[in-house]
Amino acid sequence: MTGNTTKTRAVILAALMVFSVFAGTVAFTGSAAAGTPTYTGNAVHYVNESGSGTPVVEVPFEGGTIDVTTVSNSSFTLLDDGDNASAYVENYEVRDGAVYIEVNQTIASNDLEVDISDTVQSTSNDPVSNPGEKSIIFAGQTLEFDESAPTPSSPANSSAYQGSVVAIETNATNTDVTVEGEDNNYFSEGSTGTNSTVFTFDTSDREIGEYRVFVAGSDDSNNRTFINVRDLQLDVEVDDLNVTNEDTIEGTVSAVAGGRNVDIDLLDSSGDSVNTTNVNLNGQGEYDFEFNTQTADDGSVLETGTYTVEVTDTTSGVATESSDIEVSEAADEDVDFASNVISNQRGDFLEATVELTSTDTATLSFGSQSDGVVANATVEDDDGDGQVTVYLNTYNMQNGNDVYSLDSDSDDVILDQNNPTKTSDLIDAGDYDFEVQAGDQGVGTGVTSSDDVATVTLEERSTDALRMWTGSSDEIGSVSDLEDVNEALDEGQITQSSEVAVGDLAVHQLEASGFEGALDARDNELVTQEFVNLNRTGPINLTIEEADPGANQAPSELALDSTNNLTVIADGENDTYFIIVDTGEAQFKGGEDLPADDDTALETNFTVINRDAGYDFTPEGEFDSDENEETILEWGANEPDVTVSQPYNVSQASGQSISGTTNIAPGTELNLRVRSQSGTSPSFLKTASPVVESDGTWSAEFDFSEQNVGDEYDIVVNANILASATEEEGTVVEAVETDTATPEPDTDTPEPDTDTPEPDTDTPEPDTDTPEPDTETSEPTETSTPGFGVVVALTALLAAALLATRRD
Fold first, then answer.
1. Which CATH class is domain 642-733?
2. What CA–CA distance (Å, rounded) separates 579 from 584?
């Protein structure tokens, strides 16, 4: 009984436990079906391929079904970087436990959010759990798998750029998805999740290459879709990372694919966009952008601080960001002269460098009404280096031509200039003010309130020297700039000499200030035509004429022609001019050539014309108003000559030198030939091209070791400017042994000299260096040996000495 009762009681307790568990399960299930919807993450913005390609935002929930009547812009607010993006929303749809927000276009942004209000309820009026602002994944590409079709299918293989997110769309919720790397070890198994039909594959940290995607139920394992992950190489480079709030931020966006649509955003230090633009890359995959730092998108002035430029590819969502850009407060506009003291001779160029701060334009004014000269200009710092160097031609202050100029290779610009007050002749020596003001004040007005003033000192010009040099026209060639002259000087092809061989170049080195402006010789070096013009019209006159024409005869003058015989090279910065006359092309004004078969004494006269003739280049106080300034140089145009130095004969050996002298210019290459005379066998011809040295000598070496002693030859020396070659005759002679080796001593005993020499009756002076005799030795007895004299004794002593030397 008791046992039965106990058994019965145990059965009843077990039944109650099972029933209680079952009752609890039923209660939980009922609560879940009609309970609280909970947002568990993974909201995604993608193109819903199964929904006719409509861009949507899927917001999945668990634990309940959302009441569609509680869904609206106010309860599901779409945000882009914190800004309300509800303008994009077209419709809301609730299905399969998820809210689908349909938008009118793809919102290519990685800063999308959805703000879920706590007013959202389930169909059983339960409030939503976990409301608030939630991040949205942007998937720029969608792969649709239709596993529920009668014939399950997979999409075609596709490509995705690294950094983008691919939406793998299925037709059922909670679908298993596998992604596996083809050429790497990546492997992932997951699912779309509860109440979601989308699985996202983020390629940001994936290697370049192929990935296989398999969706459960879509097809068998042999028919899987591949995603080929590639590198878009999206990049942004900013030209200057340090700018002021009055500058612009400029740079270049680039990618390996052209024609792509990108958003370019200027972000502040908080990551908020203050300026944005949407552009298409060109066919080369590039775009040059520019942001004005003075104005943000809302019209406000950009604050100082740190900024970056973010670029987003709108199709894939791939984004990149620039290095930090520091925007600082712009300094006040200011301009200054780099040097406040500027000096040169009147007639030359003045050089002035203007330094610009927070501006790229400046107005310049030289002189004043009281000075009797005014020259204004507006310049622009176009290369952005913060300075502009200008040159003022003081010669042009009298003729109305442009006064201001820049270097020929300068990137800066003279916007405008004028010379409203001109001088009547060459500007006077003295001090002048040179003013500068920031901005374009207009050249008609000039500087109104100067930011800086420089003092310009113009000194009297002068002629300081006239020197004569010579050079070879064959070796120097066509001289066209200062570099050609300096190179010839460095290499000794132009040497100082007052004697010039006819056919060579007569190089006059003129040192004279005040002509740089008239010859426009600051940026130009070849000023031949300008010199000829001044020589013809004034204020200078250069003549070359006979120095000694003979009694009662007027001197003949050379006709200087810029086309044939005259070249002028300027070193304007150093007030030096090289006036080069080709004597081989020179003629007198009567038409006769400069004689090449005789010596002609010439006189060069460089004259600066007096002020009474209408020129103001002669320094006041040094010359009267009717007195010219003359500088005279005498030199000789001589018959070219080459001589061969004696001896003309050579030895039958190598290294035989033939040399000589010449009055032809150093650096000239001579033509030297040594040829056998008729009847010499075997015949020979030896050639060389010796160069004339700076001292007028020349030489060449030949090998005569294969020639015969007695061979006769002709030495022929020629040069282009020689009327006829120089010839001399020589003969190969026997080589002379120059070695002086010490001979072996003669070991044979010489025959005794039978002739007894006469005894030397002169008693020699005693040797004061003779050492003291040994006191133990008896004094020697003076004897003589028959048949041997003093000479024989000395000979024997010498032989003994030589033998001792040999043994040593």
1. mainly beta
2. 15
Model pLDDT for residues 226-242, shown as the tens digit of each residue = 999 999 999 999 999 99
Cα–Cα nearest to 361, from 419, 452, 436, 418: 436
Alpha carbon 726 to chain centroid, angstroms = 53
Residue-level pLDDT at 739: 52
Q: Which two tokens mark 88?
A: 């994009």
Structure tokens at 673: 């030939």
User: What digits encode the pLDDT tens for the residues 579-590?
Assistant: 999 999 999 998
Write the CATH number of the domain with boundaries 336-459.
2.60.40
Residue 457: is it exposed, middle or buried by C-beta count within 10 angstroms (0-12/13-18/19+)? Answer: middle
Q: How many CB atoms lie within 10 A of CB 385?
A: 11
For residue 306, give the 3-state DSSP assignment.
strand
Strand duo 176-181 + 187-191: pairing? antiparallel
User: Distance (Å, rounded) from C-alpha 78 to C-alpha 98?
Assistant: 16
- Three-state DSSP class for 31? helix
Window from 12-16, 140-144, 356-360 with minimum mean pLDDT: 12-16
Residue spans per domain, the chain: 32-230, 235-328, 336-459, 462-638, 642-733
If pLDDT is split at 50, 70 and 90, which confidence band does 42 have? very high
At 102-152, the pLDDT tens digits run 999 999 888 899 999 999 999 888 899 999 999 999 998 999 887 665 555
Instruction: Please tell me the distance from the alpha carbon of residue 484 to that of residue 756, in angstroms, as a whole number.
Output: 85
CATH placement of domain 235-328: 2.60.40.4070
Per-residue pLDDT reduced to its tens digit, 567-615: 999 999 999 999 999 999 999 998 999 999 999 999 999 999 998 888 8
Q: What is the model's pLDDT at position 109?
A: 87
The total of other beta-carbon atoms located within 10 Å of residue 596's CB is 18
Nearest to 219 by CA among 154, 148, 149: 154
For residue 742, what are the CA distances in angstroms to 473, 560, 745, 794, 805? Answer: 55, 70, 9, 21, 12
Q: Is 336-459 in the same CATH topology as 235-328?
A: yes
Is pLDDT above 80 for 31? no
| Chain length of the chain | 808
Half-sphere exposure of 36 (CA within 13 A, CB side): 10
Reduced DSSP (H G I as helix, E B as strand, rest coil) percent helix, strand, coil of the chain, to 5: 10, 40, 45
Structure-block tokens of residue 547: 């120095």
Output the pTM of the full model.
Answer: 0.60
Q: Is 3 left (phi over 0), alpha (psi -120 to 50) or beta?
A: alpha
Q: Which fold has domain 32-230?
A: Immunoglobulin-like (2.60.40)
Closest C-alpha among 167, 157, 250 to residue 211: 157
Distance CA 625, CA 631 (A): 17
Q: Which amino acid is at 357?
A: T
